[in-house]
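Problem statement: downstream parser choked on a complex file, so we are re-checking the raw output for the cholesterol run. The parser issue turned out to be on our end (a line-ending mismatch), but while we're here, posting the original submission so the record is complete.
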Amino acid sequence: EKESFNELQLKKREEIINDGSFHGYEDPPRARLKLDEDDRPKISLWAILKSMIGKDMTKMTLPVSFNECTSLLQRVAEDMEYTDLLDQAALKKDSCLRMVYVAAFAASEYSSTINRIAKPFNPLLGETYEYCRPDRGYRFVVEQVSHHPPVGAALAESARWDYWGESAVKSKFNGRSFDINPLGTWFLNIRPTTGGQELYTWKKVTSSVVGIITGSPVVDNYGEMLIKNHTTGDVCRLKFKQRGWLGSGAYEVYGTVTDKAGNPRWSVGGRWNDKIFGRKYQTDIGDSLVMLSKESDGPVQSMEKPANVSTSPSSNAPFLVWENHPRPSAPFNLTPFAITLNAIPEKLKSWLPPTDTRLRPDQRAMEDGDYDFAAKEKNRLEEKQRARRREREVEGSVHQPRWFRRAKHAVTGDEYWQFNGQYWRMRENLGRKSVEAQK
Ligand code: CLR
C-alpha cells in the first residue's frame, strides 16, 4: 500500500528523484554524537536572566553553555520527525479523518521541546539547511531570509504532501517566563490517494519557558490552534492547555474536527509529550481522550495500548493516532531525530552548498563539547556578519534571499515565502561537478 502512488503523487516523487535530491544521503542517519554526555556548567537560568527583563532573545548575550548544538533552522527541520502522519493522512478516504492526522502532526511538533531548555544557534543571514530522507521519501530546505528580525523560510516536499512556512518568532523575558510567539502561517498541501490536492493552514501556538525563578525550568506550549482545510471547508480547533499550578493540565491537547456544514465529526486529543488518540465524535465524551492518554501512562502500561483502544478508526472506540518516540538520554537532551540533523557523512560533503549549517565550525565545536572554541568561532562569525551588514549599508544595497521570494497566497491571501524552485537543481549541478573533480 505504501509504495502505490497515484498519478499526481508519482509526478512529485519523480521530480524529487530526478532533481538528484537524495544524492549524498546514501548512508543511514547517524545514531549518536561524538559526546556521550554534555558537561555544560550548570548555571542557574534565573541568575543570568534577572538582568534581562523585557528583552527579546536576539538582544540577549548568554554564555554559550546556554546553547544547544542545533540552530533554529534545524529546529524547523525537527517538524519532520513525524511526517508519517501526513503519509497516513493522505491514505484516508474521509477528509475529516485526514484532518485528525494533520492535527496530530501539528501537535507532534511540540514533543521535541521536552527537556530542551537551551538556546539554539541563531542562523546567519543567508545560511541554509537541507535535510533529506530517502527512506521516508522527503526533502526539506530552509533559508535564513532575514536577520533582524530573524526569519527562516522553509519547504518540505514528498510524494503525498508539501509543507512550507515561515519560522519567525517574537520572544520576550517578562521576569517570570520566557515567551516565544510564532508569527508565520504554516501551509500543508496534501495529495490524497483518492485524487486531487487539498490545502491546509495553521499557526503555531505559544512556547514558553516557565519555572525559571524556582530553578526547575520547563517548556510549556499552549494556546488555540485553528487548522483549516481550505479545499473542503473542514476545520479542527485544537486547544493546547496551559500548564497550571504544580503541572496540572500539562501537555494536554484536545480538539474537534468539524465539516464544512459545521457538524462535529471526529475528536482528537491526548498529550503532546506522549500519545494522541482519535475517535468518532460523540456528544457525551468531552475530553475523555485526554484521560485515556493518562490512563495509558506509567511504566507498566505504557508499552501496551489500553484495552479499550482500537487500532482502526472504523468503530466508535478510540484509536491511537500518534505516539512519541522514546527519548533515551543524550547530550543536550536531543531527541534521536535531532541527533541525525547535523551529521555530515563523507558522501554528503560534495553535495552541500557552502551556506549549509552543517559547515558552521561553532556548532560543530559545540556538538563535540569544545565550548570555548565554539564561543570564539560564534563571535568571529557574528562579527563577520556585522561587517557585511555595514558594507551593505555603505553600498546602499539590501540582502536578497537566494531561494525564496515574498508572495501573496492565491487561496488564503496570506503573505508567504515562495520557493523559487532553484535550490535542488543548483545543488545537483554543483555537486555533480565536485564529484567529477574528485575522480
Ligand atoms: C517550538 C516548536 C515550533 C518551533 C519553535 C520555535 C522556537 C523555539 C521553540 C520551537 C522551542 C523553544 C525554544 C524556541 C526558541 C527559544 C526556546 C527553543 C522549536 C528556548 C527553550 C529558549 C531558551 C531560553 C534561554 C534563555 C536559555 O514548531
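For whoever reads this later: Residues 59 and 249 are 32 Å apart (CA to CA).
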